[in-house]
Amino acid sequence: MARVPGRDNRIAVPAMVLSLAIVGALVWFAVPVMPLVMAWAGGTAGNAVTMLAATPTPHTVVAEGLDVAETDCRELYPNDLWNELTWTSDAILSQSTAGPATAMSDLVAALAPTAARTCTWTTSAGQAVVTTFATVSADAAGMAEASLRGQGFACATTEGTLECSSTTDAGTEHQAVHGPLWVTTISSAWYPEDYDHRIAIHLWQ
After folding, report:
1. For the packed helices 79-86 and 195-204, what is the interaxial angle rounded to 10 degrees?
2. Cβ neighbours of 81 (radius 10 Å)
Protein backbone atom coordinates (compact mmCIF):
# COMPACT_ATOMS: atom_id res chain seq x y z
CA MET A 1 0.00 0.00 0.00
CA ALA A 2 1.31 3.42 -0.87
CA ARG A 3 2.51 5.38 2.08
CA VAL A 4 1.10 8.86 2.60
CA PRO A 5 3.66 11.30 4.01
CA GLY A 6 2.81 12.29 7.56
CA ARG A 7 0.39 9.44 8.11
CA ASP A 8 1.02 7.15 11.06
CA ASN A 9 -0.52 3.70 10.60
CA ARG A 10 -0.21 3.06 14.32
CA ILE A 11 -2.92 5.68 14.86
CA ALA A 12 -4.99 5.31 11.66
CA VAL A 13 -5.72 1.60 11.95
CA PRO A 14 -7.08 1.66 15.52
CA ALA A 15 -9.12 4.78 14.70
CA MET A 16 -10.73 3.01 11.71
CA VAL A 17 -11.48 -0.06 13.80
CA LEU A 18 -13.04 2.14 16.49
CA SER A 19 -15.19 3.92 13.89
CA LEU A 20 -16.44 0.65 12.47
CA ALA A 21 -17.25 -0.57 15.98
CA ILE A 22 -19.28 2.58 16.71
CA VAL A 23 -21.24 2.22 13.45
CA GLY A 24 -21.91 -1.43 14.21
CA ALA A 25 -23.14 -0.56 17.68
CA LEU A 26 -25.53 2.06 16.31
CA VAL A 27 -26.92 -0.44 13.80
CA TRP A 28 -27.29 -3.03 16.59
CA PHE A 29 -29.30 -0.63 18.75
CA ALA A 30 -31.41 0.56 15.78
CA VAL A 31 -32.55 -2.88 14.62
CA PRO A 32 -35.08 -3.49 17.46
CA VAL A 33 -36.93 -0.21 16.83
CA MET A 34 -37.15 -0.58 13.04
CA PRO A 35 -40.57 -2.36 13.16
CA LEU A 36 -41.91 0.49 15.31
CA VAL A 37 -40.60 3.10 12.89
CA MET A 38 -42.08 1.26 9.91
CA ALA A 39 -45.42 0.87 11.69
CA TRP A 40 -45.48 4.59 12.57
CA ALA A 41 -44.67 5.58 8.98
CA GLY A 42 -47.32 3.23 7.60
CA GLY A 43 -49.91 4.50 10.06
CA THR A 44 -49.16 8.12 9.24
CA ALA A 45 -49.47 7.45 5.50
CA GLY A 46 -52.67 5.48 6.03
CA ASN A 47 -54.22 8.25 8.10
CA ALA A 48 -53.34 10.79 5.41
CA VAL A 49 -55.01 8.66 2.73
CA THR A 50 -58.07 8.16 4.95
CA MET A 51 -58.36 11.91 5.56
CA LEU A 52 -58.12 12.63 1.84
CA ALA A 53 -60.73 9.98 1.05
CA ALA A 54 -63.06 11.32 3.72
CA THR A 55 -62.93 14.90 2.43
CA PRO A 56 -66.41 15.51 0.98
CA THR A 57 -66.74 16.61 -2.63
CA PRO A 58 -68.56 19.96 -2.84
CA HIS A 59 -72.07 19.38 -4.15
CA THR A 60 -73.49 21.82 -6.65
CA VAL A 61 -77.25 22.42 -6.58
CA VAL A 62 -78.11 22.80 -10.27
CA ALA A 63 -81.10 25.07 -9.71
CA GLU A 64 -79.14 27.74 -7.83
CA GLY A 65 -78.65 30.80 -10.00
CA LEU A 66 -80.00 28.95 -13.03
CA ASP A 67 -80.76 31.00 -16.16
CA VAL A 68 -83.14 28.60 -17.89
CA ALA A 69 -83.34 30.57 -21.13
CA GLU A 70 -79.57 30.26 -21.58
CA THR A 71 -79.25 26.68 -20.33
CA ASP A 72 -79.03 23.67 -22.62
CA CYS A 73 -81.43 20.80 -21.92
CA ARG A 74 -78.46 18.52 -21.25
CA GLU A 75 -77.65 20.40 -18.06
CA LEU A 76 -81.19 20.03 -16.75
CA TYR A 77 -81.27 16.21 -16.77
CA PRO A 78 -79.40 13.74 -14.56
CA ASN A 79 -76.97 11.52 -16.46
CA ASP A 80 -78.94 8.30 -16.12
CA LEU A 81 -82.20 9.83 -17.38
CA TRP A 82 -80.45 11.66 -20.23
CA ASN A 83 -78.82 8.41 -21.35
CA GLU A 84 -82.14 6.59 -21.18
CA LEU A 85 -83.83 9.21 -23.34
CA THR A 86 -81.07 9.54 -25.92
CA TRP A 87 -80.78 5.76 -26.29
CA THR A 88 -84.51 5.38 -26.91
CA SER A 89 -85.06 4.19 -30.47
CA ASP A 90 -85.48 7.12 -32.94
CA ALA A 91 -86.03 9.65 -30.11
CA ILE A 92 -85.57 13.25 -31.21
CA LEU A 93 -84.98 16.22 -28.93
CA SER A 94 -85.94 19.76 -29.86
CA GLN A 95 -85.30 22.79 -27.66
CA SER A 96 -87.01 26.15 -27.44
CA THR A 97 -87.77 29.00 -25.07
CA ALA A 98 -91.52 28.40 -25.37
CA GLY A 99 -93.59 28.54 -22.18
CA PRO A 100 -95.23 25.57 -20.43
CA ALA A 101 -97.55 23.46 -22.60
CA THR A 102 -99.81 22.72 -19.63
CA ALA A 103 -103.59 22.79 -20.03
CA MET A 104 -103.65 24.89 -16.83
CA SER A 105 -103.64 28.26 -18.64
CA ASP A 106 -104.88 30.06 -15.52
CA LEU A 107 -101.86 28.71 -13.62
CA VAL A 108 -99.50 29.96 -16.32
CA ALA A 109 -101.08 33.41 -16.08
CA ALA A 110 -100.87 33.38 -12.28
CA LEU A 111 -97.25 32.24 -12.05
CA ALA A 112 -96.23 34.47 -14.98
CA PRO A 113 -92.90 32.79 -15.87
CA THR A 114 -90.26 35.29 -16.95
CA ALA A 115 -88.01 32.81 -18.78
CA ALA A 116 -88.28 29.24 -19.95
CA ARG A 117 -86.45 26.34 -21.55
CA THR A 118 -88.62 23.65 -23.11
CA CYS A 119 -87.19 20.22 -23.96
CA THR A 120 -89.43 18.22 -26.29
CA TRP A 121 -88.71 14.52 -26.80
CA THR A 122 -90.65 12.73 -29.55
CA THR A 123 -90.52 9.43 -31.44
CA SER A 124 -91.84 8.38 -34.84
CA ALA A 125 -94.46 6.29 -33.02
CA GLY A 126 -96.14 9.45 -31.76
CA GLN A 127 -94.78 9.25 -28.22
CA ALA A 128 -93.84 12.52 -26.54
CA VAL A 129 -92.45 13.91 -23.32
CA VAL A 130 -92.39 17.71 -23.12
CA THR A 131 -90.75 19.36 -20.13
CA THR A 132 -90.54 23.09 -19.49
CA PHE A 133 -88.22 24.66 -16.93
CA ALA A 134 -89.50 28.13 -16.08
CA THR A 135 -88.43 30.96 -13.80
CA VAL A 136 -91.18 32.21 -11.46
CA SER A 137 -91.40 34.14 -8.21
CA ALA A 138 -89.79 32.55 -5.16
CA ASP A 139 -93.17 32.11 -3.41
CA ALA A 140 -94.88 30.42 -6.38
CA ALA A 141 -95.24 27.01 -4.70
CA GLY A 142 -98.14 28.06 -2.45
CA MET A 143 -100.07 29.60 -5.31
CA ALA A 144 -99.37 26.61 -7.56
CA GLU A 145 -100.50 24.08 -4.96
CA ALA A 146 -103.81 25.86 -4.31
CA SER A 147 -104.52 26.13 -8.03
CA LEU A 148 -103.50 22.57 -8.90
CA ARG A 149 -105.39 20.97 -6.02
CA GLY A 150 -108.43 22.95 -7.11
CA GLN A 151 -108.08 21.37 -10.56
CA GLY A 152 -107.97 17.84 -9.13
CA PHE A 153 -104.20 17.33 -9.05
CA ALA A 154 -102.71 15.08 -6.38
CA CYS A 155 -99.93 17.00 -4.64
CA ALA A 156 -97.20 16.34 -2.09
CA THR A 157 -94.25 18.36 -0.82
CA THR A 158 -90.93 16.60 -0.23
CA GLU A 159 -87.84 18.43 1.02
CA GLY A 160 -89.24 21.75 -0.11
CA THR A 161 -90.30 20.57 -3.58
CA LEU A 162 -93.99 20.62 -4.45
CA GLU A 163 -94.86 17.78 -6.85
CA CYS A 164 -98.35 17.41 -8.38
CA SER A 165 -99.76 15.15 -11.08
CA SER A 166 -103.00 14.52 -12.96
CA THR A 167 -104.41 13.65 -16.37
CA THR A 168 -105.65 16.64 -18.37
CA ASP A 169 -106.68 17.44 -21.93
CA ALA A 170 -102.99 17.98 -22.73
CA GLY A 171 -101.98 14.52 -21.50
CA THR A 172 -100.54 13.24 -18.24
CA GLU A 173 -99.21 16.29 -16.41
CA HIS A 174 -96.56 16.47 -13.74
CA GLN A 175 -95.86 19.77 -12.02
CA ALA A 176 -93.00 20.60 -9.65
CA VAL A 177 -92.20 23.91 -7.98
CA HIS A 178 -89.27 24.70 -5.71
CA GLY A 179 -88.30 28.29 -4.99
CA PRO A 180 -88.15 30.30 -8.22
CA LEU A 181 -88.13 27.28 -10.56
CA TRP A 182 -91.24 25.65 -12.01
CA VAL A 183 -90.95 22.39 -13.92
CA THR A 184 -93.93 21.10 -15.87
CA THR A 185 -94.04 17.88 -17.92
CA ILE A 186 -96.69 16.72 -20.38
CA SER A 187 -96.35 13.09 -21.45
CA SER A 188 -98.17 11.14 -24.13
CA ALA A 189 -97.74 7.34 -24.39
CA TRP A 190 -94.23 7.68 -23.00
CA TYR A 191 -93.10 8.39 -19.47
CA PRO A 192 -89.75 7.02 -18.23
CA GLU A 193 -89.90 5.64 -14.70
CA ASP A 194 -89.74 8.37 -12.03
CA TYR A 195 -88.98 10.90 -14.77
CA ASP A 196 -89.96 14.06 -12.91
CA HIS A 197 -88.75 12.84 -9.53
CA ARG A 198 -85.30 12.13 -10.98
CA ILE A 199 -85.22 15.61 -12.48
CA ALA A 200 -86.27 17.10 -9.14
CA ILE A 201 -83.44 15.31 -7.31
CA HIS A 202 -80.97 16.49 -9.94
CA LEU A 203 -82.11 20.10 -9.71
CA TRP A 204 -82.69 20.60 -6.01
CA GLN A 205 -80.80 18.01 -3.97
Report:
1. 140
2. 19
Which pTM value belongs to this model? 0.69
Its sign, for the CA torsion 10, 13, 16, 22, is negative
Q: Where are the alpha helices (DSSP H) in 65-173?
A: 79-86, 105-111, 140-150
* Nearest-5° Cα angle at 37, 31 to 43: 150
Amino acid sitting at position 157: T
Return d(Cα 175, Cα 110) in angstroms, integer. 15
Nearest of 166, 106, 107 to residue 140 by alpha carbon: 107
For the stretch 121-159, pLDDT in tens is: 999 999 999 999 999 999 999 999 999 999 999 999 988
The distance of Cα 134 from the centroid of its chain, to the nearest Å, equals 21
Which residues have a Cβ under 8 Å from the Cβ of 156 and sit 6 or more positions away? 162, 163, 164
Contact 104, 168 (CB under 8 A): yes
Tell me if 132 sits within 8 A of 184, measured CB to CB.
yes
> What is the spatial distance between Cα 18 and Cα 11, in angstroms, rounded to a whole number?
11
Closest Cα to residue 99, out of 65, 127, 141, 130? 130
Does an H or E element contain 98, and which? Answer: none
